[in-house]
Amino acid sequence: MKTISILIADDEPEIADLIELHLEKEGYRCIKVADGQEALLAFQTNSIDLAILDIMMPKLDGYEVTRRIREQHHLPIIFLSAKATDLDKIAGLVRGADDYVTKPFNPMELVARVNAQLRRSMQFQPSAQTNKLALEAGGLVIYPEERTVFLYGDPIELTPKEFDILLLLAEHPKKVFGSENIFEQVWGEAYYEGNSNTVMVHIRTLRKKLGEDVNKNKLIKTVWGVGYTFNG
């Protein structure tokens, strides 16, 4: 069985060591780096399954590292930061993170979040036994096995969570999904009231990437007071 590798990028050695200690107890292989440039270099020599990134790192911050990772890799990214306001968290999710943990943090909670992200990521890995056809609607083409999306022939770069939301809605056209249902199916965790903002932010950025800020014929339709539906 393949050993899962996790990148820990944090310029505070005591924090990186603490995370490594708890993740290695779970059987994960950890790769520690102290700045953004080292984080990007780690992807050139390692097969990484999940990244834990501090936002305020030397050389390149977590936002820029995430942007460059997303250009070539599809994997869960968790921001770990002392920036703890709701606006900070929303900014992190908009910049491409799949989850956001604030410092100081409970190491066991972080491990639980890592496990949840990996379960979700592995669930959507292509299988040699599957032969799922592409989903098409209004110029949008989704390839579930390859986890790729094209709009009028142009590739659309989505984060893993954005892709999972789009696929969930597209596989059930006209069905209305509430924020609670979307969160529990995509994040694989129990829903609580604050998670509605997380879903809303991901829907907003997904719509923007699909050009729906200027397109009146929305593929993702809001059913006010209920949730969202795929209008394909």
UniProtKB/TrEMBL annotation:
Q: OmpR/PhoB-type domain spans which residues? A: 132-232
- One MF term from GO for this chain? transcription cis-regulatory region binding
Report the residues modified as 4-aspartylphosphate. Answer: 54
Give me the Gene Ontology terms describing cellular component.
cytosol; protein-DNA complex
Residues annotated as DNA-binding are 132-232
Q: Give the main localization category.
A: cytoplasm
Q: Matching Gene3D superfamilies, A to Z?
A: 3.40.50.2300, 6.10.250.690, Winged helix-like DNA-binding domain superfamily/Winged helix DNA-binding domain
PANTHER family in the record: REGULATOR OF RPOS, RESPONSE REGULATOR SAER
Name of the protein described by the UniProt record: DNA-binding response OmpR family regulator
